[in-house]
Amino acid sequence: MTSRRNIASGVLAAAAAIAASEALAALLSLRESPVLAVGQSVIRLTPGPLAEAIIGVVGQADKPLAIGSVVLAIIALGAVVGGWWLTHRVWAFGLVTLLVGLTSAAVLSRPYGGAAGVFTSLAAGVVVLGVLELLLQERDHQQADLARRSFLRTFAIITVATVFIGAAGQVLASRHRRREAVERARASLKLPSRTSASPVGTDFEIPDQDPWLTTNRDFYRIDTALSPPLIDPAEWSLRIHGLVDKELTLTYQDLLDRGLEDAWITICCVSNPVGGDLIGNTVWGGVSIKAILDEVGIQSGADALLSTSDDGWTCGTPLEALTDGRNALLALTMNGEPLPIPHGFPVRQVVPGLYGYVSATKWVVDWEVTRFADFEAYWTQRGWGERGPVKTESRIDVPRGGIADVGTTTVAGVAWAQGVGISGVEVRVDEGPWQKAKLAEVPNVDTWVQWTYDWDATAGDHTIEARATNADGEPQTSARADVLPDGATGYPGVSVTVG
Ligand SMILES: Nc1nc2c(c(=O)[nH]1)N[C@H]1C(S)=C(S)[C@@H](COP(=O)(O)O)O[C@H]1N2
Ligand SMILES: [Mo]
User: Taking a C-beta distance cutoff of 8 angstroms, is the pair 397, 412 a contact?
Assistant: First the structure.
């Protein structure tokens, strides 16, 4: 009995170690789990003629066979370790150490090997020892029955945990493979070369100020996806239906065939507080949404475009904003590159002048031309405004950190009113008179604009505020509003200690 129990414990310990190392490998995004690395080494070390003979017999099954043999060997060695655990503890430790060592060597011999792979191998060894320690204790003959029941319970718990961790690891690993496949498809896209440098005069290049152009890496990300949808552009399509004269389905290639136009557009999130950084500016390459809607023909009575993403997020956009001539795009590129996966690859919407939650659907796959009266989109159901026009706002970026020196001090920031444009920005100190700031260049009305003001700073504590005026002559409001339900307002302000 004891020996059967020991062997079963060893087998379970080995299985738990494999499950744990596979899951850890997936979690750490290893290109190869330790089991795979050992399998590869076995294949490499198999003498050529023997390998050919095996392939001759099993054919394409050689790879599963190699992995299966490794798993079986580990299980068998686990049984040996379990068998030795109570009587030959030093040998058991020695064998586990040897296996961890060989596995680490196999991992390190691979091009993707490294510290994380060795760590995963070590973790597998620790799991073996831990499981055996939990299961096998010296038996007290007085309480054999109690010990047996506690053994069975622990055995069952570890078995369930092993299956669970193993399954979770497989799910994670298959997602990794999918992500790599989509990343490869993205990298191999041959898109016509696109603009990606800021137009002259848009950036004052003031130290500490956010650049006018936001890089893809620095671009804020807001969505409800715990992990982004992984869509192969070759499999992507957009179905257009609802109140249209003719339905249409567009593929990625269809969009490319139409030719991409570039547009500088600043997008921002309705959840951006005054002074916040949920805003970014970049050049998008895409196809005019208006042109597509003109083609399908909007029927009378329709006032909304209900767009749905691959993962089921929904967004309602006023048709007016999509057809009034502004640069509303189905975008394929961001800063001259295919959209990064988290920013909507392969295709997303970008609409100047509307907050993202009512316009900027990422991973978009479905368009229904409809009426606002007939649906509620994701955020509208949760209390946010049905339409989300961007409010004229400004932000102070410099001086940062709340301190400045006496004398001429640069105050700088950005202002935006996408779709309308900014005609001026003013700055005031300690609620004194408003002073005109200097504006940088912009390529159109859809981007933010940098501004700067030379302030003659005097010693002491001061408050600096800014306000923008849009190109229609309307100044941004001083009334403070929270982000809910349709965007924050109020003057941005910073406190500065000079001296
Ligand atoms: N599919 C999908 N698209 C989405 C969202 C989302 O949750 N899911 N969030 C929207 C919101 S609220 C904003 S502000 C923008 C943000 O776009 P970004 O992450 O590229 O900056 O995407 C919009 N598009
Ligand atoms: Mo947002």
Answer: yes
Cβ–Cβ contacts within 10 Å for residue 126, how many?
13
**Which residue owns the Cα nearest ligand 1 atom 10?**
357
Q: Which residues of 150-186 are buried (b: 16+ CB within 10 A; e: fewer)?
A: ebeebbeebeeebeebbeebeebbeebeeeeebeebb
Same domain (yes/no): 365, 412: no
CATH number at 423 reads: 2.60.40.650
Tell how far the Cα of 268 is from the centroid of ligand 2, in angstroms.
Answer: 7
Test site for ligand 1: of 362, 364, 418, most ligand atoms within 8 A of the Cβ: 362
Q: How many A from CA of 292 to the centre of ligand 1?
A: 22
Domain boundary among 362, 382, 402: 382
Asked if residue 320 and residue 464 are part of one domain, the reply reads: no
Q: Tell me, yes or no, whether 424 and 360 share the same domain.
A: no
Alpha carbon of 269 to ligand 2 centroid (Å): 4
Is residue 212 in some structural domain?
no
End-of-domain residue from the set 131, 146, 175:
175
d(CA 287, CA 455): 44
CA of 219 to the centre of ligand 2 (A): 13
pLDDT in tens, the chain (499 residues): 458 999 999 999 999 999 999 999 999 988 889 999 999 888 888 888 888 888 888 887 888 888 999 999 999 999 999 999 999 999 999 999 999 999 999 999 988 878 999 999 999 999 999 999 999 986 666 677 888 889 999 999 999 999 999 999 999 999 989 999 999 999 999 898 888 899 999 999 999 999 999 999 999 999 999 889 999 999 999 999 999 999 999 999 999 999 999 999 999 999 999 999 999 999 999 999 999 999 999 999 999 999 999 999 999 999 999 999 999 999 999 999 999 999 999 999 999 999 999 999 999 999 999 999 999 999 999 999 999 999 999 999 999 989 999 999 999 999 999 999 999 999 999 999 999 999 999 999 999 999 999 999 999 999 999 999 999 999 999 999 999 999 999 999 999 999 8
Q: Are residues 377 and 398 in the same domain?
A: no
**Closest CA to ligand 1's atom 5:** 223
Domain that holds residue 25: 2-175
Is there a single domain that holds both residue 104 and residue 58?
yes
Residues 339 and 410 in one domain: no
Q: Encoding tokens for residue 29?
A: 């995004």
Q: What residue ranges line ligand 1, CB within 6 angstroms? A: 219-224, 269, 309, 313, 343, 356-357, 360-363
Q: Which two tokens stand for residue 79?
A: 């049984």
